Amino acid sequence: MKCLNAWWLAVVCGVSPVAVGADPSLAADGGVVEEAKDTGAASAPVASPPVPAQSEAKKEPRPRTLAELTDAELANLSLAELEALGLVSEIEVVGKTVDVQRVAGSAHVVGREQLEKFEYDDVHRVLAQVPGVYVRDEDGYGLRPNIGLRGASSDRSSKVTLMEDGVLLGPAPYSAPAAYYFPLVTRMVEMEVFKGPASIRFGPQTLGGAINMRTRGAPTSGGQGQLDLAGGLYWLGKGHLHYGYATERMGFVVEGAHVQSSGFKQLDGGGDTGFGKNEGMLKGFLKLPSSGTSEQRLELKLGLANEHSDETYLGLSDEDFQRNPLRRYVASGQDEMNWLRSQLQLGYALSTGYAFQLRAALYRHDFARVWRKVNGFRSGPALEDVLRNGNSGQTAGLAAVLRGELDSANADEALMLGSNDRKYVSQGAQVVANWRPVLGGISHVFEGGARLHYDRIDRFHTEDAYRMQGGALVAEGVPSLVTAHNRGSAMAGALYLMDEILLGDFLVVPGARVELVQTSWHDRQTGLRSQAFDPVFLPGLGAVYQPTSQWTLLAGVHQGFSPVSPGQADEVRPEQSVNFEAGTRYNGEVLKTEAVGFFNHYLNLVGECTFSTGCNESQLNQQFNGGQANVYGAELSVGAGTAGPFGTRLEGRLAYTLTLSEFLSSFDSDNPQFGRVEVGDSLPYVPTHQGAALLMLEGSKWSASLSASYVGAMREQAGQGTLLSGQASDPHLLLDAALSFRLTPGTQLYLTGDNLLNTRYVAARRPYGARPGKPLHAEFGLKHSF
Q1: 3-state SS class at 503
Q2: What percent of the chain has a predicted confidence (pLDDT) above 90?
Q3: Which tens digits make up the pLDDT trace of 703-736?
Q4: CA angle, corner 457, sides to 453 and 458, nearest 5?
Q5: Which residues are within 8 A (CB) of 488 and not within 5 positions of it... i.e. 6 or more apart?
Q6: How far is it, in rounded angstroms, from Cα 769 to Cα 394?
Q7: Which of 253, 254, 478, 601 has the fewest CB neighbours in a 10 Å radius?
Q8: Distance CA 327, CA 320 (A)
C-alpha cells in the first residue's frame, strides 16, 4: 500500500492531520492545520520527514491522482499540489502532519471535541484524563492550578513549562515560575502534553514535560462565530462569544469570555466564596506577497484578562471538615484575590513548501495581582499547627478565635492579614526553524530554535493586625507592617537543535538544549543585592522502531533542568535529573494503545518555600538542595471506537499511571512538605495510583459522555510506610457526565454534571488545614453558531 512506503503521508490511510503533531510555535494561531479531533495517546511534536524543494523546471505535467504518483513524485509536490490531493488542510504556513506511529517520545492531546463535550472550566478536570499528569486541587475551580508531570513538584505548576500558542505564559517563568495566572480553559481549542525527550524543545522547565494550550484562530474563509451561554449551581454563569472573518489575504478573530460563581463554600456569617473572571483576545494575520511555493505572513495577538476571587489559603480542622467540609471560618472573610493581565504578541511566519519553515515572535506579558489573606496569628503556633491540634491546650483557644467563637484575648492573638502585592513582566523574542533535506540518501529534519527572554517580579508585602471581636474581624488601627519589598529578575538565552534521522524502519532523534540564565536580586528593605549565572547543557536522544505499520517501539533519554530563582544562597544548585523512558504504541483501525515506562533520577532535587506549601514570610521563596531521588513508574492508555446500534458511534478510553518515588539522601528542611527527610522516603503529593476512564456515545443529533477519574491518597509530607489519618489527602473517585442535543445545524443544548456521586474528600491540607474538592455541580447551556 503506497501510504506505508511514504509513511510520513500516513494521513492518506486515515490518520488525521492533528495538531498534536505540530510544533506549537509553528502552529500558533490555530488555523494552520485542521483542528484536531480527540485523541488518546498521540505523538510528540516531531517534524514531518523531509521533502526536497520542488524543482522550478517542470517539463512534464504531474499525474493528478494519488494512485498514479510514485513516492519520489509525492516527495516533490508543492503545497498547492498537496492541497489538491487532500494531503494538507490549506495553503498556509503548515505545522507538521505526522504519523503518530513514528514519533520519539510520549505526548497526549485533549482535543476540541472532548473540551466541548464536558465544558470544563477547570484545567484539573481536563488533565485528569492524561496519564503521567498529577494535579492537586486547591479551590475546586482550578483558578491557580497545581500541575506536575512524572513526579515533578505540582506546587503552583512551577516545575512544568506552560505555554499558550507556543509562547511561555507564566507571569515570570524564570524569576518566579509559580503560575498564579492561568487562562480560561473555555477559550482553549486544544491542550497538548509533552513528555520525554520532546521536553528539551520547550524550556526552561524540562524535568517532567511541557503543556501547550492552543487558542482559536481565524476561520479559513468568510465569517464564522459562536455564542455560548450557560448557568448552573452556585450561581454559575458563563458567557463566551467569538467571531472571525478571513479573506485570501487577511483574517481576524475576536473573542471574549466571562465565568463567575458565588462559590460552593459556606462562609461563617455569610458572604461570597466564589469568583469572576474575564478574558478577551484579538488575533489577526496578513499574508505578504509571495512567489512560487513560498508564503509569508504577519500575525498579531492582543489579550486582556482580570479576576476577582474571594479565595483563601485557610482550611478546616479535620473535626470541622467531618461535620461540614464546605464550611469556611469567619477569619477568612476578608480574603480576596484581584489580578489584571495584558499580552501583546507579534509574529512572522515563512514557509517554502515542505522544505523550510520559520516562525518568529516578539511578546510581552504584564501581570499585576494583590492577594489579601489571613497569614496567621501575631505570635504563637502556625495556622497549620493550630488546625492540626485544635482540641487541646492553647491551640484550642486559637482555633476558636479562627471560628469566631472566642474574641482575641490579647495582642498576640490578633490575626495578621497580609496583602501580597506583586507585579510581573515577561517579554522576549523567539524563532523556530525547520529544514528537511535529503543528505547522502538519508532523510533529515533539522529543527532549531532560539529565545532571548527577560522577566522580573516586584514584591511588596504588608500585614495588618485585626482582632476577632463578636464573631467579626476588627482592625487594630496600627500602621501596616512591611514584610517584603524586593525585586527579582532573570535574563535568559536558550538554544536548541534536533535532527530527526530516518533510517528505514528506524527514526533516531538526537538533540540538545543550552540555557544561559543570569539572575539578579535586590532586597529593598535591607539593601542586599546579588547576582548569579547558571549555564547548562541538556542533551537528549529518542529512537523509534516500527516493525509494522501499526506497531511501534520507542525509547528515549534526556536531561531535565529547572533554574535557580533570584536571591538564593550560593550553595543552591539548579534542579537536574536524567530521565529515561521506553515503551510501545499500537495504532490499529479500532484499537489504539500506548504503554510507557519511565525512570527519572534526580541528581539534585530542589525544594522551594511558598505560601501555598505552608511556609511563612521569612521563608518565602527560599530554595534548598534536596539531594538525589528516584521517581519511576508506568503509564498506560487504551482507546477504541466502533459503530454502535441505530447508526451511533461508541468510543472508550482508559488511562492509568503508577508512580513510585524515593529519596536517596537524608536532610532537614524548613519546608513543611519535606521536614525531616530520611533515605527511602516518598515524595509528597505524588499519588501511587491514578486512573481515568471515558465513554462516549454519539448519534446523528445527540451525544452522551461519561467520565470517571480516580486519584489515590497523596502524602502531605515526605515519608514512608503506612499513611496515617491527617497526613494525606483522601483517595477519591469522581464521576462526570455530559449530554448534548442539536436543535438545528447551528444550535445546540448541553447539560453537564461534575462529581455526580457528590464525593466529599480532603483534596489537600496545604497550606493551612483541610480543604474540599468541588461537590456535585450541574451546568445547563446553549450554543449558537453563525
Answers
A1: strand
A2: 71
A3: 999 999 999 999 999 999 988 878 899 999 999 9
A4: 145
A5: 172, 175, 176, 456, 457, 459, 519, 520, 521, 522, 565, 566, 567, 621
A6: 17
A7: 478
A8: 8
Report the SS3 class of residue 118.
Answer: helix
CA distance 55 to 39: 37
Give the SS3 label for residue 173: coil
Residue 689 C-alpha cell reads as: 495510583
The per-residue pLDDT for range 263-286, each reduced to its tens digit, is 999 999 999 999 999 999 999 999
Separation CA 152–CA 264 (nearest Å):
30
With helix as H, strand as E and coil as C, how does 8-43 read?
HHHHHHCCCCCHHHCCCCCCCCCCCCCCCCCCCEEC
The CA–CA distances, whole Å, from 357 to 277, 431, 781 equal 37, 11, 41
Q: Is the pLDDT of residue 746 over 50?
A: yes
Q: Tell me how far apart the alpha carbons of residues 61 and 10 are, in angstroms, rounded to a whole number.
A: 25
Query: What is the rounded end-to-end Cα distance, in angstroms, of the chain?
Result: 41
C-alpha cell at 688: 501511587
Q: Which residues contact 751 (CB under 8 A, 6 or more apart)?
A: 738, 739, 740, 778, 779, 780, 781
**449: Cβ–Cβ under 8 A, 6 or more apart, which residues?**
25, 201, 430, 431, 432, 433, 494, 495, 496
- Residue 149's DSSP bridge partners are 133
Helices in 183-339 by DSSP H: which ranges?
318-323
The full 3-state SS of 370-421, as one line of letters, equals EEEEEEEECCCCCHHHHHHCCCCHHHHHHHHHHHCCCCCCCHHHCEEEEEEE
Written as nine digits, the cell of 490 is 532573570
C-alpha cell at 26: 509553528
3-state secondary structure 127-158: HCCCCCEEECCCCCCCCCCCEEECCCCCHHHC
pTM of the model: 0.87
Contact 748, 782 (CB under 8 A): yes
Q: What is the mean pLDDT of residues 537-552?
A: 92
Q: Which residues contact 61 (CB under 8 A, 6 or more apart)?
A: none
